[in-house]
Amino acid sequence: MSGYPPEFRESIKIIEETREERLKITPPRVPLEEKEELLRKFHPDYKKEAKRQIKIGAGKGEYAPHEVANLLEAHSFLYMNALSNGVEIDLEDPDFDVDVLIIGGGGGGATAALWALYNGIPADRILLATKLRFGDANTKMAQGGIQAADREYDSPIIHFLDVMRGGHYTNDPDLVRILVTSAPFIIKWLEELGVMFDKEPDGTMIEVSGGGTSRLRMHSAGDYTGLEIMRTLMDEVLNREIRVLEFSPAVELLTDDEGNIAGAVLMNLETEQYLVVRAKSTVLTTGGFGRLHIQGFQTTNHYGATMDGVVLAYRVGAEIRDLDSVQYHPTGAAWPLQIAGQLVTEKVRSLGAQLVNTAGEAFVYPLEPRDIVAAAIIRECEERKKGVITPVGTCGVWLDSPMIEIIRGEGTIERYLPAMLRQFRRFGIDIRKEPILVYPTLHYQNGGIKINTNAQVLGNGGRPIGNLFAAGEVTGGVHGKNRLMGNSLLEITVFGRIAGINAAKNARNTNVGKLSLKHVYRWEEMLKEAGIETNVVAPMILPDYKGDIKFR
Amino acid sequence: MPGTVETIKDTKLVEGKAVEGVLGAGKKLVTIYVMGKWYQVPAGLTITKALEYLGYRLVRGVGCRAGFCGACTTLWVKKNDYKLYSGLACQTMVEDGMYLVQIPFVPAEKRIYNIEELEPNGSVVLALYPEVTRCIGCNACTKVCPQEIQVMDTIQEIIRGNIAKAARMAFDCISCGSCSLRCPAEIKHFYVFQLVRRLYGKYIAPKAKHLEKRVKEIEERKYDGALDRLIRAGPDKWRELAEKAQKDEEVET
Amino acid sequence: MLYYPGCTVKATAIEYEKSALGILKEFGINVIELERWICCGIYHGLTVDTAYQTVAPMRNLIWAQNQAEKLSIDNNYLLTLCSMCYNTLKSAHLRYINDENIAKRIKAFLNDESLYKGNIKVIHFIQILNEIIGYDKIKEKLVNPLKGLKVVPLYGCMLLRPNEIAIDNPENPQIMQNLLHILGAETINYPYVNQCCLSYLVTKRPYLVWKRADDITNSALDKGAKLIVTTCPLCAYNLTEGQKKSFGSVKLPIFYESELIAYAIGKYEYLKKDRLNMLENILKGV
Known about the structure:
- The complex is a heterotrimer.
- By secondary structure, chain B is of the alpha+beta class.
- Chain B has 3 domains: 3-102, Beta-grasp domain (Ubiquitin-like (UB roll), Roll); 115-204, Alpha-helical ferredoxin (Fumarate Reductase Iron-sulfur Protein, Chain B, domain 2), CATH 1.10.1060.10; 210-246, no CATH class.
- Chain B is built from 11 helices and 5 strands; from the N terminus they run H-E-E-H-E-E-E-H-H-H-H-H-H-H-H-H.
- Chain B has a 5-stranded mixed sheet.
- Chains A and B meet through helix 6, helix 7, helix 8 and helix 9 of A and helix 2, helix 8, helix 9, helix 10 and helix 11 of B.
């Protein structure tokens, strides 16, 4: 029995009937002159009404989606829940006193912790605090792979060019340079830690293509590249006996009397106690904003992806960039609702599946860049009304996966997409026989807080904020306005390492003064001065899904 | 049956037009028992969503919500069925008559080792995790694995020293711990598997020679001059060269 | 016929497997390793609940039965090299077909899998040599008689006890000696011929095992033996390690019977190089 509701039957029939004809054609590429218009009219990033100018802070005047701006213009969680109610935070007697505090327990945080250790900070002088479990992060969910130009036919220069092209040349070239020149070293480091990369019998890495990469450069570990990297890093952090504090998100950074960063206030999510951490260096590796459901989109992201790190850094004066740019993955699952928004990997399209509307037309070349494909799918739904309307009123188009079995032979899906096959089978859909209903899904925070090549967070006028470092999705600049597949796992390990090294260096030359939360009181005053009236309190920590059934 | 629960249910049905026919299940409601407590929820919700629909705020027993992280291990039994089932809450639909509990944490201790000092053989694994030899072949582990791993067979490969095979067999493990909860030999499979995979990745899999070569080239600053020039050249040059690279042409800087 | 290797054979007694399977091939016996197998279940031999210790071996028997059906192998033999595995698998088979109560509980426990029909014949390597190939056939192929080589056989306990599964008279076994005589060797009587090596006590009380190894070795040395012959990888392991502990090195080498046969019939390719050299050195000194 099919897991699709009876309403879908008719349109699936059209897909089946037109399949043979469609097999003979390659859907046309979008002509260059139409691309701009397609994006402008249908890509969510180009929707003016979905954004506004930020009214406060270092990024004042910049555009950001309302959901992002709401959090940047929000009240302080700590102020609202503690400081303004007379709950005392004892800054004189910190609960933890460490050299390096790392906030965020994904791949970036784990990497930073290890490199701080390698650079002379003892394990018990490092504290890695994380919101949920250690390793619960988008890192684990990265399926595609990790890029590195390590073959004769490739070079860091070509990798550089691909990254820049992907980001529409808006990237920070100095950061990109570090990304591409550190990549081979990082892969080697991971290999030495024991990551099971896919290899030929002689040890040569199996490397495949990814959207927007001009050379075969994608290293992978089966369908689970991110998971394999994350669990290996975790294992090493635990072996080195670095202290890990789970279920303890940061709710505010701390400064010292000179305005440099001096640690953070954490909250034990279970007991709701506040914990004061004094640290000589603080590293933010908190990830991105998928769970803000910008413009009501479903997301591929982890439960904890709520942009906390950007909020905390913004309040101590960090500059931001490219937060107006959101990456929508064109093919998120649109049905069944149980997995709505979950990633349907690009691989399905590269293996031969076409995107088809209810008229049975393959309406877009399936390997156009992500933003183009996403816009084309939205056009089918919104303008041409050739999308499938689901029983809850959402829309999607068909990704004709059975074509793969016809083009590449029976058994191809089982061999190359086992996780995907398992995923849909759980809900009664056999993607070898039935198409997949897809719609764009919120995937990645392209921008974030500004950093320099030492992973120092930049404040007013591009000057580093003392003792504060950041790496990964929380930062902006590496990917410009659009990230390519395979560069996020690379970014977190490359810049996690740099942040760890520099945090260690910094800790050796720093003495933290008296701890202070002055900047929080100042923030609340600034809100008043700017005339902002809001009920929003940030960091969000976790999305509120109580009573919700819309979002997965 | 407690009336309050009915109220919650009814409100939701009216409020969320969504619930109507959502998930292809019409207005059908199913009865579930959350830690013994009676509730009704729309059929077709995953366990995670059903709990949120009921007003639970999840902190433990929730993670990536996509079947990758293993945080939402859930145990349940069904009416008129003695079996104890296990699965991921984010990937499992509620069923009528389900008695369920989310597992907030699987008690297990990771053994500490220095990977640099180990050898890739079975005795190393057994020395760190001697309980592995207590496997009695009951196969309870395999039956509950949401990733369809042959858990018992993997443990057995380790006992007989076949690290390479065990590492490949255990590759899809997401460390949800369902197997360890059921194991009468008290094996903590996911930690054992982690060790085995690292031994394989580090010692058994052959090293990538091209990688070493490229790392050395970069250390010797082979690309520095070209990158300096390229970055100075600016966006127009980048665009020109990037388009060339896309056409698989040689790129000269 | 189907072959059940067992963990110890795969982990520490590869030389046994190599020589034994090689010889069987020489005598025209085609051996197919089970596609799927787990530890025979010996670790649980001492659990109080006999149903519990039957689960693991029963799975192996079921898999053997299914594979035999799939491949249309109708002799239903399941070959073991390890004495431990022989004992465990055979005992489980007997318990299952003789004890209704156990069978019922096993069936209930394994209710998701196929049923055991009770017709797998677990057979040990020596039994194949003796009963299926026949010692005469081995004699015909003899090219290097082990003339003048004094050896002591060590049956261990697992092939002889309990009585129901014994491959020979538990108190006065002769099956190994008979073959050794055919190979041209001289067997020496000593009190430890069917003694237990103390098996897995090695993990818990190793000093007892070292003492036992010491006793066996000294007794054999006193009687002028040049090597110990066994068919049990665990006996071999405990004696080798025990000698290393007591004497600093292996004073009296332990050989598998299959290795001696391979040498005697001139099939050196079934011997590991170092083992062949060691054996040749011993024979030179005779």
